[in-house]
User: Fold these one by one.
Assistant:
Number 1:
Amino acid sequence: MQTNNSFGTHNSKFEQKVIIFPALTPSQLSCGQVFFLFSVRQVEDIIKNTSVHPVPFSSPYIEGITIWRDQVVPVISLEECMGMESTTSGSGFRLLSTRLIIIRILPSFSLTDDEKNEKVSSAHGDILPTAGGKKNFSFTQEERDAFFPAEEYEGGARIMLRVAPGIRMLSLPISCTPLPLASVEWIPKKELVRGVYEWEEGYLTVAHMEKIFKGH
Amino acid sequence: MTNEQKELLLFQVGNRQFGLDLPLVKSIHRAKRFLEQGAGENIPIYDLSLMLGQDSSSHHPGSKKIMIVGNEEYSLGLKVDHVDGVVSVSNEQIKWLSPIFKGPSLNCFPRVLKQNNHLILLLNPKGIESLNMEDRTPDAETLCPELRPPSIQEECEFMEADSLETRPDADIKSPSPLAENDLQLLFKQHIDSEKLESFLTQMIDEETISDMIMRISARILEESITCEIGKVGEILRKRMAEKSLKNANK
């Protein structure tokens, strides 16, 4: 990998390894196979299956929620999240896919005060539209913090990705060329991508997991 | 996180269980009697099975309840399929939904109860009222309208208008090429695999599907059936086997 500060760590062992898996997109869409790439530090677990509970009215790329090691974790499709055309979607895909990957977002995750306000207000049903469309929140800092104790995301926030077979671990460095995101037409939501790299087997895509987790 | 106990009312909508803060529940009534007596004339009543797209046919009509919920500022009624009871849980068992959820999903289900490796979404009644659903926003004082997505409803009307409704199989000799192509185009253009499967499953269950539709749907669903051992595949195979046996006996 030429340059990517996202994978910079103090542990030289982890710096040398990345995990990739193929994206479920038509190859003719990008003129090559698209892969998603994560540092081994981001990948906490790979499991075969789990029971997923759909959440009504959620975005189409969110399959639902599940329990992983006593935590409630969302299960999503990265391809659909980024607006990419997916070759398999719906219940057929969910039976075809063989693995679920737990991705840790950050060592410590936090929401901004505005983000907390929005969640607390929703929970209380105090969705108060005001003039100009700006919501009116009436919670104190103590009330906001009480709903989001630090231990809720202790050790980092997590997302579970449903992926197809073909998960691989590669050693760095990888010979590849970074592409300008503007030229990557097959990813509509470029703001959710940190970078795309062209390599001998196709394209390596690095997702912006923090933005994805915050629902941007 | 404190270890205080919290009381929740658990209820069923279709085959799913949900929860609600008990202090928000003002009263619970038998649905049929409540509606007949017009007791909730000034209270908006929301049919959760329709709003959440859940099939409530497996529940006995007598078990359906209307819960009047709210606080001093608002009241609304929620029609559910079954009220399971009250549970006392610790706050530690209640988790916020991930920030990845937003909009209606977060408004309606901001929290989830984690109980014995099982997840139960906790409903925020105010979120139901604030839903802005284009084709299913109820009038303030009426039950929620049928929640079938417009495309599927239109397709039902299309099929009925085209004499593909409930004729006995023997009456349909062979499909006209134009009708078959139109239907194929309709399916491919307007329905994704999930909606199609759900729609066809219901049609098959109601035994309103004709031979022609079965042939078309079998072709369209061929790929998903070969990959997925699901209800549609089983029902189709069973019906085809029954039909073959029936024809053989004639």
Note: DSSP finds seven helices and eleven strands in chain A.
Number 2:
Amino acid sequence: MRDILKTTASRRAVLGAGLAGASMLAMPSILRAQDKSLKVGVYGGYFKESFDKNIFPEFTKTTGIAVESIAEPTGEAWLVQLEQAARAGQAPADVSMMSQVAMLKGQSTELWAPLDMAKIKNASGLIENFVNKYPDGRVAGIGAVSWYITLVTNTDVFKEAPTSWTALWDPANADKLGLLALVSNSFLLEVTAKTHFGGTDALDTEEGILKVFDKLAEVKPNVRLWYRDEAQFEQALKSGEIPMGQYYHDVTGLAAGEGHPVRSTFPKEGGILDSGCWALSRASEKTEEAHVFIDYLSQPAVQATLSRKVGTSPTVKRELLDLTAEEFAAVSSDIAPIVPRYDLYQTKSDFLNQKWTEMIAG
Amino acid sequence: MRREPPQRLADYAPLAFPAGMLIVFFVIPFATMIAVSFFEREQGGFYQPAFVWDNYARFISLFFGKVLGFSLFLAIAVAIACVVIGIPFTYLLSRTKRKLQVLWLVALLSILSLSEVMIGFAWSTLFSRTAGITNLFTALGLMAEPQALTPSFGAVMTAMTYQALPYTVLVLYPALVRLDPTLTEAARTLGASPVRAFFTVVVPALRNTILATLIMVFIFALGSYLLPQLLGRPQHWTLSVLITDQAIYQSNMPFAAAMAVFLVLVSLALVGLAVYAGRQKEAV
């Protein structure tokens, strides 16, 4: 019986793979119908939906370049896939939205084709730290969108909004928190350093990092869920099952807009400002189209549309945007943000990961 | 029909297809994994071919030892729970009417069509404070107020047992149906109570089936990745969770491969031990 079950499973897997393969083979013929096309990787789910609906059709109308959007997984899984494919001379997507840590890791293997800034005129309006550069000054990526991770609460359980990240340490919140499960996407080390050690400079040395870890370990009794899966926490936050935690400002705003009892607060120490870059795989043959695409997306008007429709924070300078004060406040804050120490996740990634896992699971 | 041993080389031809599949889909990937486990990790990058023991050295620590120990303990606990629930259930099932049996088996099979994600989310809702079963207990006056039953070890055990039980029943069912009813009848005639007859006749007669079931559920549970994560606290995360972290989120394939190889070796050793112990007992 065991063997029979096994064969069915594998046969189903083979069938599935066959179907997927067949549909992939069918794709290029559809694409060939268009003169110019570009494969763009964006985070799957809500992000991809918003881009497909609000951004890509306009882009195709303006430039005549068809966009095939590819749902990329979060985390660094996509980076690994892009790298493996590039080694074989393939590009599953020409341009991809990549996190900062992934940008740095891709740099180490020259995965990103250097961008020609002369062809991206609109990049002049970008906030300086959203231009991702190789150590020798070549441009590896251009800021696509940025987003905040803030302190979120269920309004039924917490009548008063918390004002500081110190709420995470408050013994009154025992077993009430949901926090991100990975050191490289929760950025809680930076939060702890800023809240209790005066700034992220405290993470400069390994000694300093260990001190920050000790302080952070004190929140453990308050944490009910260390989540990898965003949907899991979002659901629990809406229902009040887990009434406090860290989460994405944009999605929380959307949920509140739909009438769910949730709120996102910028703590007085600042929200965590994370961002994604557009980067071009070195295996891509669509260099021209990619530059047109990145230039288009860097326009202040398009950035404003992203803020209004997707809820992300713009990567171009505030004064160039036609966002009202209210619209801007909805996606950002005047409180100085906590900027993650991306450098650490490259130079000390194994050390941080090991200590982090030991801290939460130990 | 008489079975003859293969005479010529061509007689082995039908074996070529399964052997080929096994090589392409099992041997090669597994060999690749072993090879990668010796590759050198480039921090902040990927990996490069080399022959180093670093990945195994990193694994051998108290921390990973504890995680491995917990994973094995959890898998064994789930296997025992499944068998303890599965044997009496299947025994009673095999004694019911044919129609009822089919109904039960279809219901059990339908559990297999549920993905692990759905099982995980369903149980996390059932065990929640806001919408879970404790609300029912409160309404019935059994509890003062609703409380959350997840995340906890109990929640992980429940969901994993739920997931593995259909396999257990499906493996036990044929053996129990084929079991000669006259055996128990003889025991009853000789004055044994039904419970005593069950434990002294049915269970020993099924010893090999039970061992096979235990091993199957053990291996099935050892690879569990999602349920411990959805329903447990970090101390209930299995080694599979950490392997995924390394492979997907840290892009540290060599270390992930080393952990996976280690897990396979340990589970093979345990299975070997169980089979060996079973044989020894049989020989006596």
Note: The two ends of chain B are 35 Å apart (CA to CA).
